[in-house]
Amino acid sequence: MILRLLLLLLCSILTGPGQIVAVQAQEAHEGSEEAEAVRRDRLARADSVRDALDRPPGKKGVTPTDLALAPFHLVGGALGFGFSAGFGAYELLRDFGVLEVPDEHETLLGGANISGRLGDLGSRSHTAAILTFRGLRPFYVEGGYSVRHYERYEGGFQLGRRGRGLHLAAVYHDLKEPHFWGIGPGTPADARADYARERVEVSAGGWGDLGTPVEMAVEVAWQQNVVERGSDDDVSDLQDVVGDEPLFGLRDQTEYFRIDAAVDADLTRLQGLHKRGLHLLAGTRIYRGLDGTDSDFVRLRGDVRYYRPVSPHQSVALRGWVVEHVAEEGRGVPFTHLARLGEDNGLRGFREQRFQDRAVASLSVEWRWEVWWYPSDPDQRVEAFLFAEGGTVASSLDRLRSDEIEVTPGLGFRLLDSGEGIVEAYLAFGGDERRLDLSFGKTF
Amino acid sequence: MVDTLPIEEPEDVGEGFFYRTLRKHTPLELSSPFDVLGGEALNLTHSDDVVSSAWWVRRMGYRDIGPAELARGPTSPGGAPAPGPLTVSHVRDEGTAPGLTLHDSRGRTYFVKLDPPGFLHLRSAAGVIANRLVWGAGYHVPEDYPLAFEASRLRIGEDATITDVVGESSLSQEGLRELLQRMDTLPDGRHMALASRRLPGALKGSFVFEGTRDDDPNDHYRHQHRRELRALQVVASWVNNTQTQVANTMDVYVEGDYLRHYVVDLGSALGSAGGRPKHPKDAAEQPVDLWNGLARFLSLGFYRRDWEEMDGAVADSALGFLRVEEFRPGAWQTMWNTPAFQSMTPADAYWAAKIVASFTDDHLRAVVEAGGLPDVEDEDTMTSVLRIRRDTLVHHWFQEVTPVEDVHIAGRDPGGFELAFRDLAVEHGVRSGDELAYAWRLEHGARKLEVEGVAEAEEEGAERVVRVRWREGDEAAEEDPGPSRVERLATLELSVAGAGGRPATVWLEWKGPELGYEVVGLQH
């Protein structure tokens, strides 16, 4: 060290300050080289010490324990991968705003005032991506496109939200391949045919609850429907199956003026995490044919839902609903407007729209229980459910026959977040075939 | 310490969340009912103990540590954040209570987690108290401090960022102010947080509880066979740290050029779950419990666990949800399974229970006072809780084995000897020492000895003495064993007569007719 200082002093005399820095840098470099050499020596000695030890047991190869655990690793790894992939996809969809969940956090599309969600656009649409722009409130524009090329576009304005409000909207809806089996109960499973339907509608209405749990809504609308050939190549077009038989609405463009009035009385309350009480819905819809559409009819609907918790994590839910169309004048009810039974509309064991007629009655029972919930947010939970559903159709309610009632039981799982159903999957029996279905939202 | 030899600097392996979920947790969930992991730990001394290492250090129960030293724990003089400005370089805001990376006026870095709204002192007190206790139990932990600070001390650093649910962006003064406005303050307006000083050295990612680290030549024993890692579950149960998992560990390349293994982030201990109070489910069932979920599914919801009937209401916001009535040391589990915890044997648990038993009431009081709880009543409650959990834990694990220590031969004659030992169950009041008898069984194949008996213990000071006799009077002497050490070794199984608990195995070496047997090993 003293020699280094003397050297430094000599350099400072002979060369000046600039050179001192260079000398110091050189010393630092040499110092780091020396330190590195010391470090290398310590590493080498440490390695030799380790080499002198007996072979570390931790480095030995496969043990009987590894063999015993191997099957669990295979199964568990697959389950873990599925869970992680599903959870990762769920998080990704939430972050991109495609999967809409009740969440105060902004999504990546939120900066552009666009919200997105996955849903469906009508019978057999398959999964649809739906984007809504609300950057110019109260005006909005929404567009949806599905895997099966269904389209739905809506634009309008909406004043108010819960409680009371007004809306004015124009809708274009193109369904590409809904199926039709015929009218009445007992239609054969192989009578399936498809069609396409374009609907244009302009509507205006309002709703209000006047501070009570009863909400009322009224709406007037103009509607035009055109039916064409469907795009499902696996089944025949309805136009070919029907042939010359008259099926009102198939070959005619129909145009209606519609008046709606509905009442929604949600008398349920939360008991813990579950609803308890009655939820009543009723409505009437009056159709008046316009511009050559010789058809006036009325649609009446009643829906009663009852929820009863049995324990903190179990509940029973019942739903009974009826629909009847009363033809007043002209050719009656076009097939596109008939009451339907199947899939999430009663009878989950059958495909959507499996049974159609002017009147339908259905009863569903579910036994629900939690299989998983998160401690800090019990609203995030997975619910299992057993269900049994029965229903039938007829030309009028007084012609419904008990021997024509179809019954479909099943079981499923449902993911809920903040009390809202996000997605559910179920396996249903008793229909034309066993059905495994995945759908967004919640049946009831 | 053999595992602190210098090594080449390893890479940072990160946290490995998906690795942990995919390859570790789910298989363990499925295998847990079948208990395929087993066997005693491998890193033991002859007296069934553990030596200090890069994983664990002999502290409480091994050397004299007073309450004041324990209350200081891993902290260094002047190690708390210095007075003056605190520069924010990063904010993580993905939950109820955000975390900040702060640098004090001396350039030291702290990872700071604010107490959640509505629960001042919950995380900060729990974190400091658990930090001191886990340090005292021997584990390497960071320097944790309770930190009360004014918002006016905070400065936005250059290139400061914030990470939230949307992603990472620049941190603005406005954003920081909005964030702090969401948080509760002390009556004097200061914010309350748990500050953890950055570990000294280069951070190299979490360690896992299975296998060994490939780039660490010092890592000899598979982690699931290290006693101190297995027994960490017992210490974690005492402080109710359900978040003892891979994500809350850290390997650090320290001065001396080796990896030291830390247990970090103890803010989810006791009644705290980090950003919220604990819930009855937290210590009773894991977040995703496949078997219980399957049981609920198959039973249509009629399968119930005790915790589902518990009221999760919090009596005190500073203490969170922490009860002693339902504490079951044998059933307590962390939120995520680890291979090491599943491999834990009663001997491993007893070893940890011995350490826990060495914490006196004065130690607990001093540690609780270091946590900065707001009033004396809270301190009294927390101290009582820790004391009761300690006693419950000790009582449970001491009955799973035969807890004898300091075993030695106190006297001998040609046909037997007197075995002296300390019975920790008696010393700690788990069992009454009156009229206590011990069953013993001596086996020495090379001498054709296989004898057993039951003897009442005599008390000699703190020790208990049991007579072991295999020959009376003029009976012929046994054969001499051969010269090899294996032939000279005998085993003596010792247990409390009429009680449960695994017998202790005392290893004896025959030194010849003159010297008789000598104790050379102990296994619980």
How would you sum up this structure, described in words?
The complex is a heterodimer of chains A (444) and B (524). Chain A has helices at residues 2-15, 17-52, 64-95, 238-242, and strands at residues 114-119, 128-133, 139-146, 151-160, 164-175, 179-180, 193-208, 214-229, 236-237, 254-266, 269-271, 274-289, 295-311, 314-330, 339-341, 355-357, 359-374, 377-394, 406-417, 420-428, 435-440. Chain A has 444 residues and is α+β, with helices and mostly antiparallel strands. In chain A, helix 1 (2-15) packs antiparallel against helix 2 (17-52). Chain A is elongated and about 105 Å long. In chain B, the strands form four sheets. Chain B has a seven-stranded mixed beta sheet, with helices on both faces. A five-stranded antiparallel beta sheet of chain B has the order 14-13-17-18-19. A four-stranded antiparallel beta sheet of chain B has the order 11-12-16-15. In chain B, helix 10 crosses helix 11. The model of chain B has no long low-confidence stretch (mean pLDDT 90). The chains are: A alpha+beta (444), B alpha+beta (524). Chains A and B meet through helix 2, helix 3, strand 17 and strand 18 of A and helix 1 and helix 7 of B.
- Give the low-confidence spans of chain A: 101-106
Helix coverage percent of residues of chain A? 10-25%
Q: From the structure provided, what is the oligomeric state, counting identical versus distinct chains?
A: heterodimer
Rg of chain B, Å, rounded: 26 Å
The number of helical elements of chain B comes to: 13
Class of secondary structure makeup of chain A: alpha+beta
The description of the largest β-sheet of chain A is: 19 strands, mixed
Mean pLDDT of chain B: 90
User: What form of chain B results from the Cα inertia axes?
Assistant: elongated
Distance between the termini of chain A: 86 Å
Task: Provide the structure class of chain B.
Answer: alpha+beta
Stretches with pLDDT under 50, minimum 5 residues of chain B: none
User: End-to-end span of chain B in angstroms?
Assistant: 24 Å
Which bin fits the share of residues in helices of chain B?
10-25%
- How many beta-strand elements of chain A? 21
Largest sheet of chain B: 7 strands, mixed
Percent strand of chain B: 15-25%
* Count of extended strands of chain B: 19
Molecular shape of chain A = elongated
